[in-house]
Amino acid sequence: MKIFATGDTHGNFERFRPEYFPEGRELTREDVVLQLGDFGGVWFGDSRDDEALDWLENLPFTVAFVSGNHENYDALKNYPTELWHGGRVQAIRPHVLHLMRGQVFELAGRTFLTMGGASSHDIEDGILSLDDPSFERKYRILKRKEHTRFRIDHLSWWREELPSEEEYAEARKNLDAHGWAVDYVLTHCAPTSIALRFSRHNAADHLTDFLQEVKDNAQYHYWLFGHYHDNRAIDTKHILLWEQIVQIL
Predict the structure, then answer these.
(1) 69: which residues sit within 8 A by CB, 6+ positions away?
(2) Handedness of CA 65, 71, 73, 77 (dihedral sign)
(3) Cβ neighbours of residue 129 closer than 8 Å, sequence gap 6 or more
(4) SS3 state of residue 79
(5) What is the pTM of this model?
(6) Alpha-carbon span 95 to 214, nearest angstrom
(7) Are 221 and 3 in contact (CB under 8 A)?
(8) Which of 75, 112, 189, 238 is most exposed, with the fewest beta carbons within 10 Å of its own?
(9) DSSP label at 232?
């Protein structure tokens, strides 16, 4: 089994084409490309997603993603869960898998902790509700202004972008079962001490603080994350990925 990893795709899967990822031609269904959140393949929650998802399913390898802050959680919750390599997944397609939060998977003889999610940092101008009687007026005002950054609840933003208390408990339970020692940590955002380095828009929150707890207390070899739209080795253990596809095993 070969394992690769890449960062945010936001529904654009061009990087997996053979001309950009020639290694993919030699892979099989047993090989996995791990995608580190803001997958965006389940976005509309209807047939408009099918073309891209069917194209991914026809690739020779398996694509497995953690969730980001730009996912349609209303649509994701409709997929049933199943076990895969020791952890819970949602099979979007037989070989397009959502790696659920707080799981520990065993792939190629290594263990992987997954904890998707992040706080959106492109909502400075607010989150509009479609149920608000003033929605149309507020939307028009924001659209007339330059450089506004806002989202619409249940249309382009979901509160489930951050884990629930049950998901934090699941992560702690599975970390306890593994003695707080895994080979890899896969997340969308970074622990607080790393997240605060990137920009003024990134503030500490419940998730980054939980990830900081993992960073401070767990044993691991590598931590891979996306979210910050760059390709960078923070240090020898913490790797930020965006457009690159890198082989890790």
Answers:
(1) 37, 38, 117, 118, 119, 120, 161, 188, 189, 227
(2) negative
(3) 135, 152, 153
(4) coil
(5) 0.94
(6) 29
(7) no
(8) 75
(9) E
